[in-house]
Amino acid sequence: MTIRPILTVPNPILKQISKPVTDVTDATRALMDDMLETMYAAPGIGLAAVQIGVPLNIIVMDLAREEEPPNPQYFINPEILRSDEETTPYEEGCLSVPEVFEEVERAKEVKLRYINYHGEQIEEWAEGLYAVCIQHEMDHLKGILFIDYLSRLKRTRAVKKVQKAEKLKGNL
Ligand code: K1U
Ligand code: ZN
């Protein structure tokens, strides 16, 4: 398993539309293993493949608390089948927009369909942080970042803050 670099704004790859996975192969599982290791190292609670430069419809997530055993989740070709009309705010972060946290309003519950690590199709409802995180990650698959929901002023400030930090780290 390999920790891969996470792309940050304004990298144009993050705006790409990810493509469906046609076959769940050993290569798909190896990519998901790398994604999980990258997410744990960051650290984060979710990661979309496009964030490591691979525009495929794949997400990994682990919402276990520190005192709980790890609970890795893998989502291949996820779809939202139903969305609660009720919305709820949550202060979100993103590994592609480090050190920026802003409130975003999203559906409180969503019904999902996806393929898991073993190639099985799953349908289930997500609520709470699970609902927030899966909607955030599925936005990545459409080239949408949580800062796209903010005012232009806040978005510009967020991108400039990340660029400045990357420059200081010598990454730009
Ligand atoms: O970049 C990403 O998409 C991952 C992102 C997921 C997310 C967080 C909060 C709301 C919606 C989506 C993160 O993981 S940001 C880091 C973070 O939330 C966190 C990091 C360490 C411990 C606990 C949380
Ligand atoms: Zn994100």
Task: Set down the secondary structure blueprint.
Elements: H1 26-41, E1 46-48, E2 58-62, E3 72-83, E4 87-92, E5 102-107, E6 109-115, E7 121-127, H2 128-141, H3 152-169
Antiparallel strand pairs: 1-2, 2-3, 3-6, 4-5, 6-7
The structure holds ligand K1U and zinc ion (ZN).
Brief overview:
28% of the residues lie in helices and 27% in strands. With 172 residues, it is α+β, with helices and mostly antiparallel strands. Strand 6 and strand 7 (121-127) form a beta hairpin.
Provide the number of structural domains: 1
The helicity comes to 25-40%
| Small-molecule components bound | ligand K1U, zinc ion
Main beta sheet strand tally, sense and closure: 5 strands, antiparallel
Strand/helix succession: HEEEEEEEHH
CATH fold field value? Peptide Deformylase
Mean pLDDT level = 97
- Kindly name the structural category: alpha+beta
Instruction: Give the low-pLDDT segments.
Output: none
- Give the CATH architecture: Alpha-Beta Complex
Q: Over all CA atoms, what is the radius of gyration?
A: 16 Å
CATH superfamily: Peptide deformylase
CATH class: Alpha Beta
Number of strands: 7
User: What fraction of residues sit in β-strands?
Assistant: 25-35%
Could you walk me through the main structural features you see in this protein, from its secondary elements to its overall organization?
With 172 residues, the chain is of the alpha+beta class. It has a single domain, classed as Peptide Deformylase (Alpha-Beta Complex). It contains 3 helices and 7 strands; from the N terminus they run αβββββββαα. The protein has helices at 26-41, 128-141, 152-169, and strands at residues 46-48, 58-62, 72-83, 87-92, 102-107, 109-115, 121-127. The two termini are 26 Å apart. The model has no long low-confidence stretch (mean pLDDT 97). Bound molecules: ligand K1U and zinc ion. Zinc ion binds at residues 94-96, 136, 140. Zinc ion is lined by residues 94-96, 136, 140.
